Amino acid sequence: MIHVKGVTKTFDKEIAVQEVTMDVKQGSIYGLVGSNGAGKTTLLKMLAGIYRPDQGEIFIGGEPIFENVAMKRNVVFISDALYFFPQVTIEQMASYYRSFYPNWSDERFETLQRVFPLEPSRKIHRLSKGMQRQVSFWLSLSCLPSVFILDEPMDGLDPVMRQKIKNLLFQDVAERNMTVIISSHNLREIEDMCDHIGMMHEGKIILEKDIDVLKSDTHKVQLAFDEEQKEEKILNDLTIVHKEKRGSVLLLIVRGEKDVIERTIRAEKPLVFDMLPLTLEEMFIYEMGGVGYEVEQILY
Amino acid sequence: MKSNKSFINKGMQKQNMKQHGWLGIVFFIGLLFALPLQMFLLASDIRNRDSLVIENVFDIAYPFQFILIIFLPILAGIVLFRYLHVKSAVDMMHSLPIKRVHLYLNHYLTGTLLLLIPLWLVAMLLFFVRDISPIYQEITNGDIGIWTLVMTVMVLLFYSVSIFVGMMTGISVAQGILSFILLILPTALFYLIHANLAMHLYGYSRGYVMDEWSTYLSPIVWLSELNYREFSYLPLIFYALFCVIFIVLAYYLYQWRPLEMSGQTIVFEFLRPIFKYGVTVCTMLVGAVYFDQYPHDGWIIFGLIAGSLIGFLVAEIILKKTWHIWRKKLLVQYGVYASIILVLSVLIKTDVIGYETRVPEASEIERVFLGKDPWTLQDEQLDEEDIFIQDPTFIEEVRSFHEKIVTKQPEPVISNHLYEDSYVIAYDLENGSRLVRQYHIPMEESEEYVGSLIESKPYKTFFFELDRWEQAPIETITFVSQGPESKNVKITDENEIEELRHILKYDIYSLTADDLIGGEPTWGSIKIETETTLKNEEAVYMSWNKSFAEVDEWLRRNDYINEARIVPEDIDTIDVIDVSSSERITYPEEYFFREKEYDLTEIQDEELIAEALQHSRNFGQADYVVRFTLSNHGYFFGTLRTEDVSEAFIQYVE
């Protein structure tokens, strides 16, 4: 659905995005993480057709997105800094969007009112920051976009509302095969919703992973054996990414299929054996190996 | 209109009107106050009824109109395109599925409606309000039409310029300021360059400007003169054309505008050096002009350096938006700039193009003008046929004067312009071009350079405007005396006028260079009214030279002399101070304020008084200063030179 090829963007001689290449499949939720100033926002604004890339190409649905009205009708972007016209009400803003997005659905707008407990006749500027965010989701989702680009969208939302919005996104992805690109400086905030993660640092994507593959492929294991040999055998048989010993307990991050690992270990009759869930963060840190130090700097 | 419909986005128009509609209302109310309301007030005010002249719409509260017509369109450009300068608005508006060109056109359209609807409504009101009072009877439908047309073009031009500038900057305040600068810059720059060239090029005429052209360069300057200047369509057509050019340029700039640069003073990188060095050049020229008032080249150089340095730093501060701009690179940049300017100044000073020394060949010259000031050349009322001279001998004389002066290049008298004679030479060349030079010659050297020229018939014909009265039917000749005694004689008798016409002509042709140079001795002025001047022209005025001997004789013979000017019989005594240093004297009375410091010689001898009166001048190089005391106790002052007075006078004073 989204195809980015060698995109570079420079601001006043400072490189914001450097030769980024990425692909996002239709119906997937792609999470873009990275520290402040990593270039996430710039990349997203280029994806939304706002900024013109200095080099490289961006295609959405096979067409270049910049100044492409037909394609942009299917793309909705929520910026990290929201903008509403002065003194405008939710209703008026809705009618403004209606005049631009042909897919706009009044039905959807009304349905969503159940999720967002706000009066459409209220002036947006009088609302709190979190409520304004809700309005932006409400309006955007009513446009029935096929590509939804979100820049730090969870800022200022309470946990209940976050969950509601995540559910709405899942629903649209499932029902309408919507593609979502979402950025955050906090991996934990979006790890439970993304199926792909791209990590940006200093303008480059330093890591891009399919989370399902990652999850089925990497495991955290706690072990204790009565004999040293058993331990060594295990270490030789399995692909170990990371090893740590705390007293007699061995903590391993192992790559491989879950069944195979379990079988191999059980065969040696361990005194203690636990397979623990791995957080996305840990996965990245261990996965990165050599660049691990860098990753630890990025994630927090 | 069909093709237009496709770009109009109703949702956007509705939102724009809702958000920016106040502009239209403010403009409408402003115009109501400036015109219809003002017209009611003027009509009901009977106090100034007689002095009030209202010939067209520009005569009604014009300053108020002028301010509205400039400010509102520029403000509209700022307000409507503010979405380009607010970061969050930039993102929101450009994420919408609409091309930039349509965003541009829709916003342009809203602004145009908000400006033109109030303007045209008020124009329509004018048709009705005009009938409330007879003082507006001279305003025709055509006048209202022209006013509406001018204002429409100007409003759209200012609005378009504001948008054009808005596309280049990322700050709304900068948009406003730069729009004004851009609108005035062409004229201002023209004058600055002009004034600077005059400082450095010998013979460059500071006052001579290529006709009105330079004020046309700035629409604001042109508009500011509309209430007293003749209206012409040509500049208006040019402004309309420029309006279109700005609309198109703004469109292309928008296409290439880096949106992420909102908040920067200048968003296009390639424009930043142009801005920086443009500001530097302008302030440099201003600096030089500012210090030109001091008679020393050092000050002008100081002005150039200080001006350019200030401009360079200020431009950098504006671009970087901080005053902490110090970097070594700046030194290099300024150094390069200074070197280029230095090379340019050397080129100008050494006169590589031969500007200072160029004297056209006689064969190139079609006709020539010699006058005292450049304004005569630009006076629309004068017929060029009358002021230019084709006589080959005269052309040759002007040429040799010109050659002499460019070889010798006498230094002008900087400290006091009274002591220099200014001469403007203009050649109309065979190739259709015009070459104009102006020279300032110290009074004492004038005779050496231009003596034979100003004694020549063609020059006197031009200088005393003979062609306006030599043949024409003269109605009156008036002699007006200067000084404390206001005397005058008006001759209306036909026979007397005929006599005078010939006598005056004879006297004029008899004048020597000495009679015409510096503080020429005069009795007062002579005013000649002809049939034509009485109708629609200014009368002919000339100095009443003391050397008009035949005129004097005629006045005496016809018993007019006592009424026409001061005569020796009016004078009781004169006091003379011998200053004998032959120095330049501007105000002879100054010596008498401190009379105790000098030896005063009182003279009561009638013959000596007559002599002093006949030869005294108003100012200039002199050996004596004189106070004339009238029998009615009034007095006046003059200067005398030893060469003008008799041996008896000199001895008496000694």
TrEMBL record, chain A:
Q: Does the keyword ATP-binding apply?
A: yes
InterPro entries, per this entry? AAA+_ATPase, ABC_transporter-like_ATP-bd, P-loop_NTPase
UniProt key word ATP-binding = yes
Q: Which GO terms describe its molecular function?
A: ATP binding
The protein's matches in PROSITE patterns, at most eight in alphabetical order, are given as:
ABC_TRANSPORTER_2
The record's Pfam families line, in alphabetical order, gives: ABC_tran
Q: Which residues form the ABC transporter domain?
A: 2-227
**Which keywords does UniProt give here?**
ATP-binding, Nucleotide-binding
Database matches in PANTHER family = ABC TRANSPORTER ATP-BINDING PROTEIN YTRB (PTHR43158:SF10), SKFA PEPTIDE EXPORT ATP-BINDING PROTEIN SKFE (PTHR43158)
Official protein name in the record: ABC transporter ATP-binding protein
Provenance organism: Aliibacillus thermotolerans
From TrEMBL, chain B:
Mind telling me what this protein is named? DUF6449 domain-containing protein
Q: Does the keyword DNA damage apply?
A: no
Transmembrane intervals: 21-42, 62-84, 105-129, 144-165, 177-202, 233-254, 274-293, 299-319, 331-348
Q: Which UniProt keywords apply?
A: Membrane, Transmembrane, Transmembrane helix
PANTHER family to which the protein is assigned, alphabetical: ABC TRANSPORTER PERMEASE YTRC-RELATED (PTHR39177:SF1)
